[in-house]
Specification:
Low-confidence stretches: 1-5
Radius of gyration: 26 Å
Keywords: DNA-binding, Transcription, Transcription regulation
Oligomer: single chain
Organism: Candidatus Gallibacteroides avistercoris
Distance between the termini: 46 Å
Number of helices: 13
GO molecular function: DNA-binding transcription factor activity; transcription cis-regulatory region binding
Number of strands: 12
Largest sheet: 6 strands, parallel
Pfam family, one: LacI
Strand order of the largest sheet: 2-1-3-4-5-11
Protein name: LacI family DNA-binding transcriptional regulator
Strand content: 15-25%
Order of helices and strands: HHHHEHEHEHEEHEHEHEHEHEHEE
């Protein structure tokens, strides 16, 4: 049997260097007053013994506290951002042992003023790092400029602001997800017309769905340039208005069979189709919200392109914690989640 090598400790280094354990600790962490002679002895012994400090033990013993704030949109049960919060909460539980306090600050994703107010509150009580869902492009750019000035690292989830010196990004490859959505919608068919349904948002809204839409149109130009593409806006929280809008749309375009939404609210359209008995249409949507999953199981939604939303929140917080605690950068700047295709036939195994 091979003999197991004994782990070298601070006590071993102190004994051979003929100094106190406190002196060794001060040399390792470069703090406090240490004579040059003692410092040289400690460094020499460390090199001889191959000593490596136990960073986890040091952190557990440390009284240093860290604060991270996740800045994300408000959510109700079953919505996209609730899933993101689950991942954030999971990371918060894991890193609480290391004195990391992770808080969530929410804003109304349809209100510029709400986002501006939230960022002002955050800057008044500065954390050590920030996880950001950049719902408003110009306001986010202004906000992260202030974070950079103050030396506060930040990471993005869901979408990102390019060239803003962020630590990491976790989200779906947006252009490719739109391209994939088009392929699922029309595939090898030769439709004469398709319809895209969008949600009304403020003009400064981040470009998540815009980039996805670009991918969709790129596919259609390449493979179906003759196809007519209609675009219709819906309201995020007004079912009465949406029913009126959709009634008019399908009266005007009764032959449209291929439908797609670029956001997580495919259930708005699916609920209408179910109510009206339009069971022969192909509907493609995004994200595994409870309402979307229910309509997928019923066959009203044909395909859902999903991403690991919880993983985004978890990995985003983890990258910030690793930076603060271990001075460790993430392996990649942009970390793209896998795109999973769900149908009524495989959703039960997901």
């Amino acid at each position: 049997m091979c003999a197991q090598s004994k782990r070298v400790t601070i006590k071993d280094v102190a004994r051979l260097a003929k100094v106190s354990k406190g002196t060794v600790d001060r040399v390792i962490h470069n703090r406090g007053e240490v004579s040059e002679e003692s410092r040289a002895k400690v460094i020499e012994v460390i090199e001889q013994l191959g000593y490596k400090p136990n960073m986890y033990a040091s952190l557990l013993a440390s009284k240093r506290e860290y604060k991270i704030v996740a800045l994300i949109p408000e959510f109700a049960q079953g919505e996209f951002w609730e899933l993101m919060q689950r991942g954030i909460s999971k990371a918060a539980q894991e890193y609480a042992t290391f004195n990391v306090d992770i808080q969530t600050l929410c804003f109304d994703q349809f209100s510029l003023n709400s986002f501006e107010h939230a960022t002002a509150r955050l800057l008044d009580n500065l954390p050590d790092a920030v996880l950001i869902a950049p719902s408003f492009k110009s306001l986010t750019s202004q906000f992260v400029t202030q974070l950079r000035t103050k030396g506060i690292p930040f990471a993005y989830v869901d979408s990102k602001i390019d060239d803003s010196d962020y630590l990491s990004f976790f989200g779906m490859p947006l252009f490719e997800s739109g391209y994939l959505g088009a392929d699922l919608l029309v595939g090898r068919q030769k439709p004469q017309e398709v319809a895209c349904f969008r949600i009304h948002r403020p003009e400064d809204t981040a470009n998540t769905t815009a980039i996805r839409r670009e991918g969709f149109f790129a596919y259609m130009r390449e493979f179906h340039p003759q196809c007519k593409i209609y675009s219709q806006f819906l309201q995020p929280y007004d079912p009465v208005s949406n029913e009126q809008i959709l009634n008019l749309f399908f009266e005007k375009h009764p032959g449209v069979q291929c439908l797609i939404t670029f956001n997580s609210r495919a259930f708005i359209l699916a609920d209408y189709l179910k109510k009206k008995g339009f069971v022969d249409k192909v509907l493609v949507g995004y994200d595994m919200l409870e309402s979307n999953m229910a309509r997928l199981k019923e066959g009203v939604i044909t395909y859902l392109i999903t991403q690991r939303i919880e993983n985004q929140g978890y990995e985003g917080i983890k990258s910030l914690c690793d930076k603060l605690l271990f001075h460790k950068d993430p392996p990649s700047l942009n970390n793209y989640m896998s795109m999973d295709i769900l149908t009524r036939y495989n959703v039960g195994y997901y």
